[in-house]
Amino acid sequence: MSTTQRSTGVGRRFLDRLFVTGTVIEIEAITPRMRRVRIGGDAVRGLGRLPGQQVRVHVGDLLSPRMWIRPGDLLRTYSVWWYDPVVGELDLCVMDHGEGPGARWGRDLTVGREVRFGKPEGKFTLRPDAPYHVFAGEETAAVAIGAMLAALPADAAVYGAVETATPEDRLPLARGAELVLPLRGAASAAASAVLLDAVRGLELPTEPGIAYVAGEAKTVQSIREHLVVDRGWPRRSVLTKPFWTPGKKGME
Fold it and tell me: What is 92-144 written as a DSSP string?
């Protein structure tokens, strides 16, 4: 065995200690631009994920010298759509939104492909004891919102708005019939007046609950300010997660 092969083997064992390694076992197109990717394996069991959390996926090879030239192309963050800690399987929903490293990685995935990622993380998670729950976001937030909706008990009070460009872009959200589902058409999702107006139109109880607001940074900010300034909510009752904004690859 050559020195390069031995180093590669040692390197991969080292990465397996630091990160979770699984295998793609199923791929399904759930919208025209979104693929559901199921990843399984022994290392995927018992990860302790909370609804709304995300994982950092290696969309490039950390052992490749090319990654040292463009380290920003190595990782992309995806919210966990579904997880079974006993069986050891989780679903990620990967959006095809152009020619970036994450989009190319998602398009190239095939069943049997190895995937390496970090353990679930993040504080944008469900607060199950809240008196009621308000959700607001667009396509990039819909996966985290869907995971939280699916985890709520049947008697939990739910309000919210999830914006998409077209009806075909809507994910199959649990309790989606209880949400407003505005369409922005060809308008930008950045600083979205469509989503803000939909949240303004929600008939909420007088007392604040917990709001989960995610997606484009300026839209997230405007909705938070509406809830805090116009409706008088405490800032701690509005959980926010800006995933992106124009001109930036990510907000992580």
Answer: EEEE--SSSHHHHHHHH--TT-EEEEPPPB-S----TTSS-EEEEE-HHHHHH
